[in-house]
Amino acid sequence: MFKRNNAFVGRCRQRLEALFSLTLITGCLFNIALSPYCMCAMESCHEKVAEVLVQVNTVLPRTLAVVCLVSRAKTMLHSASGAFSEYEKRTRKYKTCFPDGAGSAFVAFVVSVYAVTALPTNAYRLYMIHRDVGDRTVTVFFVLMYAQNLCTCSSEIHYVARCYGLYRRFCRINEDVSALKSATVVANRYPTALLFQPSASHVSPPAAVTRPTADSVELLRMRHQCVRDAVGDLNDLYGVQLLLSLCVLCVMTVVDSYGEIFGVYTLAQSQVFLYAWLVHYLFRFCTIVLTTHFTMKQAYRTKSLTTDINNRHLDISTKEELYLFSNQIICHSMEFTTCDFFTLNAHFITSTIAAVTTYFIILLQ
Questions:
Q1: Which of 34, 241, 362, 365 is the most exposed place for a label (fewest CB within 10 A)?
Q2: Are the beta carbons of 288 and 242 closer than 8 angstroms?
Q3: Pairing between strand 337-338 and 342-343?
Q4: pLDDT tens, residue by residue, 3-54
Q5: What is the radius of gyration, based on Cα positions, of the chain?
């Protein structure tokens, strides 16, 4: 009976996901087709306004719709192939053996900032569109556009949560490696042989003078390898979605700034919108990039710790395990990338700022 209920719940969940995906895809196609009409209804086409303004206005909703459409299709493919469930299964197995503590506070903070910077502003603008424009098609158009943006945000939050989970695992591994380092330092300072010499009875070494063993280093190496493999899995699961999300964030920043400067919209517009949207875009961008950056810093910090331990006096088998551990970290790539187009690190933020500024100046010209 229990298995039958689980199967029924699984089928209902699959049907709901399929219905949601179908509705979302239909909304994306609707927005792609009706972008010119809805942008003109916002009075961007009045009094012989240059056609380039209309084209610029339709870039944002169409880009967002295409990004949401492709991201959802990619997510559906991974769900159908069982890639997400397989990743979650491996994650649960790892946490069962090596708990890393609760990390829900960070995820709750990210979700809260996403919601605070997006939902009130978008809700107020929908109210102004309904009041000033008075066209139901336009209202539905912007409701769908903001829903597509929320769907993209949901994918980003799932990625950030999983990436933060890897960050905590790397931190726990580094804590254990640091404990081995401290034990090595103590063991080198107070050799075990001194404990059995009567002449050294006045020496009071710490209670735990246990040297690292090859088995303990091998266990840490295997744990690190599991987390490294999870980095590659995340790249496969979210590479396309992240690439599209980061691109659409840049496009939204340029288009919204351009529209504010030149007053492309004459209805349902306020200066508050621009500042709220820019804060929202910046937070999303920095959250994605910085979470991956600090995760990688923790991953490569293990190498310096193992190298420092290996420079101490140890037995040959332990030194071999440490050398193998360090060599694996060097030889295996642990970078978060977006389909191998961009590497997500702190330098990517400055490069993106320069690129966005350049394209904005070109658009102004």
A1: 365
A2: yes
A3: antiparallel
A4: 555 566 667 777 787 788 888 888 889 888 888 888 777 765 555 454 556 6
A5: 27
Higher-pLDDT residue of 335 and 169 is 169
- What string of H, E and C letters represents the secondary structure of the chain? CHHHHHHHHHHHHHHHHHHHHHHHHHHHHHHHHHHHHHHHHHHHCCCCCCHHHHHHHHHHHHHHHHHHHHHHHHHHHHHHHCHHHHHHHHHHHHHHHCCCCCCHHHHHHHHHHHHHHHHHHHHHHHHHHHHHCCCHHHHHHHHHHHHHHHHHHHHHHHHHHHHHHHHHHHHHHHHHHHHHHHHHHHHHHCCHHHHHCHHHCCCCCCCCCCCCCHHHHHHHHHHHHHHHHHHHHHHHHHHHHHHHHHHHHHHHHHHHHHHHHHCCCCCCCCHHHHHHHHHHHHHHHHHHHHHHHHHHHHHHHHHHHHHHHHCCCCCHHHHHHHHHHHHHHHHCCCCCEECCCEECCHHHHHHHHHHHHHHHHHHHC
Rounded Cα distance, 146 and 120, in Å:
12
Yes or no: say if 318 and 217 are a contact pair by the CB < 8 Å rule. Answer: yes
Nearest Cα neighbor of 247 from 63, 73, 114 is 63
At 351 the pLDDT is 85
As a whole number of angstroms, the distance between CA 333 and CA 346 comes to: 17
CA 10 from centre of chain: 27
Instruction: Work out the angle between the directed axes of helices 136-189 and 104-132 (0-180°, nearest 10).
Output: 160
Burial label for 66, CB within 10 Å (0-12, 13-18, 19+), is: middle
Cβ(87)–Cβ(238) under 8 Å?
Answer: no
